[in-house]
Amino acid sequence: MLLAEERTARWDPPAPAGLRAAGPVDLPFLVLVLALVAFGLVMLFSASYAVALYRRGDPYAYIRPQLLYAALGLGAMWLASRVDYHLYHKLAWPVLGVSLVLLTAVLFMPEYNGCKRWLVIPGVGTLQPSEIAKFAVVLAFAHIISLNASRMGSFAVGVLPFGLVLGAVAVLMLLEPHLSGTLLILGIGAVLMFVGGTALRWFLLAGAGAAAAVGAAVAVLPDLVPYAASRLASWLDPFADPLGDGHQTIQSLYAIGSGGATGLGLGNSRQKHLFVPEPQNDFIFSIVCEELGFVGALAVIALFVLLLLRGVTLAARAPDRFGGLLVVGFVVQVAMQAALNIAVVTNTIPNTGISLPFFSSGGTSLMMLLGEMGIVLSVSRQEA
Question: CA neighbours within 13 Å on the CB side: how many for 257?
């Protein structure tokens, strides 16, 4: 099947004995992660206290649990940085299996804003399976590629297993529906396949086929995809329905325009006072722009770009292919998600409902992100 050749045929060297990583963590990467967490918490409180006071009568309703999740996530990051990352070879398939079960279970949950994305756990809170799915896809792809590095040019090894995994995850996420999350996971998978050695011709064929299928569906049968069609229409002309589908985008653009070069000042946003829907979540970047202006927006973008560049450097220095692929997968996930969120907030692409990493409210996302950053730090401790 798609499983590996014997260890002698692998590119990866044998995993070192023990479960503890050796050496110091990469300080620049750690500083960037901590800066994003701190910046995100400050902006979340600023963006959320008005809507929290209105909805729940408590201005700390969003920041209080986020602080707890941040503390737990930082603990998970520290723990993950201390564990030898080769352990995840054994966890790749179990984690993917659990992810698929959770993605199936969430389809039986009640709808929220027209979607089924959250599992309700009595006495605990909610869990977003799509966040676990991102982690699972990176683990599974890094595992498969590192075991089959010399055969990635063939269809049977370099395309088929990845297509099966992505197909299963994508179908379940589209049923939620979660278009942005689906696009993100497909993008992460494509990057890992490209870095892992999948032949370019397969990407060209897949891209042509996907573009033709999507174009035909949208042009010929738009009624079969009302969710996507509605988002596309509000993107092309949000002012056509200023009180409906275009409302969120319009208010976001007002917030961005109000910020100017240096912003209105931290805490001084007007649009967060019930004008921008969900200012604590998907559209928090518009509040950053309003309060901190173009300068603050550039600072946020710069942090994400630096995180990506430092991650690529660490991947290049990784002692084996598995470690390098883990780093690439996790930093590309953060960078792509941030790029998609900023593109949505600025109406560069249709509104697809995607959060800004480290900034948006959401415990599952923050803890998973910090755990993944801990794995990157674990790889950095074993540089070649």
Answer: 7
Distance of alpha carbon 290 from its chain centroid, rounded? 24
Judge contact between 100 and 137, C-beta under 8 A: no
Cα(190)–Cα(203) distance, integer angstroms: 8
What secondary structure letter does DSSP report for 126? Answer: E
Query: Helices in 106-154 by DSSP H: which ranges?
Result: 129-147
Lowest mean pLDDT among 20-24, 227-231, 327-331, 379-383: 227-231
The answer as to whether 3 is a domain residue is no
pLDDT in tens, 339-378: 999 999 999 988 777 899 999 998 889 999 999 999 999 9
Domain assignment present for residue 31? The answer is: yes
At residue 354's C-alpha, the angle toward residues 350 and 355, to 5°, is 140
The residue type of 325 is: L
Domain count for the chain, please give it. 1
| Cβ contact 355:337 at 8 Å | yes
* Phi/psi of residue 53, nearest 5 degrees: -65, -40
Length of the chain: 384
The string of DSSP letters for 328-360 reads HHHHHHHHHHHHHHHHHHTTSS-----PPTTTS
Residue 67 lies in a domain: yes
Domain coverage including residue 286? 22-200+238-380
The CA distance from 43 to 41, in Å, is 5
Ordered DSSP codes for 222-253: GGG-HHHHHHHHHHH-GGGSTTTTTHHHHHHH
Is 233 contained in some domain? Answer: no
